[in-house]
Protein 1
Amino acid sequence: MSRPAPPDVGDLEALAVGLRSNATLPALLLELARMIVVRRSAAWSERCATDARVAGLSDRVLEAVDEEDWTDAAFDDRARAVFRYALLFDAGHGVGASAFDEIATQLQPGEIAELSLYCSIWGAIARVAVAFEH
C-alpha cells in the first residue's frame, strides 16, 4: 500500500512566518531554534537550512545543530541558551529548571514565549513530515 500525500501544513507555516515577522526575538535566533526542531525531517531540514543561511546562520552553525553541540565557539551566550532551550523543548520532556533559568538570563519573558511558540509550530510541522517520509 502506498502512503498518502502529506497533509498541507501551509496554515501552520503561515502562522510561523507571521510570528517571525512580528517577533521581538531576532530572526537569527528564531532560525537557530527552527533548525533544531526540524532536523529530524530531511525535507524540512533542507528547506529551512536555506532560510537559515539567508537569516545569517553559517554552515558551521548548521553543522553544530546537526551535532547537537551548543558549546561550539560559534555561539554567544544568548544563542547558546536558545540552542539548549530548543533542544530540550523539542525532546518533549520539559525544559527543566536549569535551562529555564539560563534562558531567563538571556531573554525577556515575551521573547521566551515567542521562542516556545515558534518551536511548537515548527516541531509540529516536522513531526507530520517525518510520518510521511518513511
Note: The two ends are 13 Å apart (CA to CA).
Protein 2
Amino acid sequence: MAATFATFRDPVSRTFKRVKVGPSWIMMFFSAFFGIPLFYRGFSRVGTLMLGLCLSCILLLAAFIGWAAGLDYVSNEDGGVILAFSIAITLLYTGLTVLSLASGVLANKWTAVKYYKNGWKIIDAGSEPDKVKKIKMAWSLPDDAFDDTFAGLRANASYPGMK
C-alpha cells in the first residue's frame, strides 16, 4: 500500500513541502539519539526533553560504573544501591523509549499543524475525496487548510521550489 502525502504551499515564499500522513519511521527510530531529528524539524521543546533524558541515562550509567569499579566485592549492604541504580536507569530508558515512539507516531501531525498555523495550505488533495478524509482524520485540520485552486496538480509531480 502506497503512503499518502500532502503537499503544503507557503503563500509568501511559494515553496512546497510534502508531509507524509502517518508515522515517521525516522523520528521513531532515531529521535532517541540526543533528539537530533526533533531539533531538525523545529520541535525544540521535545528535542530538549529527549536530550535531557539521553544525557541523564549516560550520566547515571557512568556514575554506576564508576561506583561499581571501586568495589572489591559486592556485599549485602550494596544491594540497595544497586537496586536504586537499576530502577533509575530502567525508568529513564523507559521514558526515552516512550518519548521516541510517541514522537515517531506524532511527528508528521506536529509538522502539518505547524505548517497550517504558519499559513501554509494543502494544495494537492482537492480532487481526491478519500485523501481529504484521510488527512482530516489524521491531522484534525479544518476545511480552510485546503486550497482548491490547485486541485488539478498531480500529487507525485515535482514543482519548482518543492523540498
Note: Residues 4-150 form one domain.
Protein 3
Amino acid sequence: MKPANLKTARVTRLLRFLTGGGFATLVHWLTMFLLIRSGTGAQLATAAGATTGLVINYLAQHRYTFQSRLPHRVALPRYLAGAGLGWSLNLACFSATYGATGAPIASQAIATATATFANYLLAEKFVFQGESTDDVH
C-alpha cells in the first residue's frame, strides 16, 4: 500500500473506531446517568455502564472498524484482555478524578479520553491483528 493510501486507511480506521466507540460510550454514559439518578453510587454506575458499552463496542470494532476476519474464538479473548485493561484504566482514572473533584461527569470525561487512547492502541496493535497467536510457531 502506498504511503498516501496507508495514511487515508489509518485515518478512516481511527474515525470508525471513534464512531463505534462513541456510540458505545453514549450507552455507557446513559446507563451511568440512569443508575446515578436511581440512587446507585457513581463508581458502581460507571462500572455497569462500561460493561454495557463493552458488548456494543466489541461488535462495532470487530465488524465495522477493523473488519476483522479473525474468528470470535480468537478475537473475543484478545478483546476482553484489552478491554479489561481499558476498564481498569477507566475506573482508576474516574475514581482518582472523582475523589479529587466530586464531579462525576467531568471525572468520566477524563476517564473516557484516557481509556479511548489506550484502547485504540491495543485494538490496532494486538486485538484485531490478522495473525492469531495460535498460528505463530
Note: The chain has one domain: 3-129.
Protein 4
Amino acid sequence: MGRMANLLLVIAVMLTVATGPGWVQAQIGAPPAAPASALPGSLEGTVKKVDASTGTVRVSSGLFGLFPRTLEVTGETQVQVEGRQGTLMDVHEGAKVKAAYELRQGKNVATRLEVLAPPAPKTPPPTMKTQ
C-alpha cells in the first residue's frame, strides 16, 4: 500500500511540474489582440429585400435559401448589374446575385455586388410536322 501511495505522489508531482507553466500562462492571459482585420466572405443567392434607407440588401443563399445574410452597401461597394456599373437602386427583389463582403465591426459590408442576368427563356424544341 505504501508503494502505491509513493507512486501516486510521484505521478502527481510530475503532472504538476509538467502543467504548471501552462496554467500560469493561462492565468496571465494572452496579450491584447490587434484590431480585427476584415474577414472576407462571398455568397451567391437571391435578393429577398432591398432597403435603400439603411443601405442594405438581404440575400438568401444555401440549401433552399435557408441562410439569409444582410449586406451593407456603402459608397465603396462595386455594384454591377448585368455587366454594367450600377447602384443599390438598380438591385431588385428576386434578382440573382453574387456578392463579396467583409466582416467589419460585426457587420457584413459588401465590397462587390453583381446582379446576374436572368436566365434566357428556354425555347421549346422544334416540332416535326407530318404531312
Note: The beta strands are 39-51, 56-61, 67-81, 84-85, 96-104, 107-115.
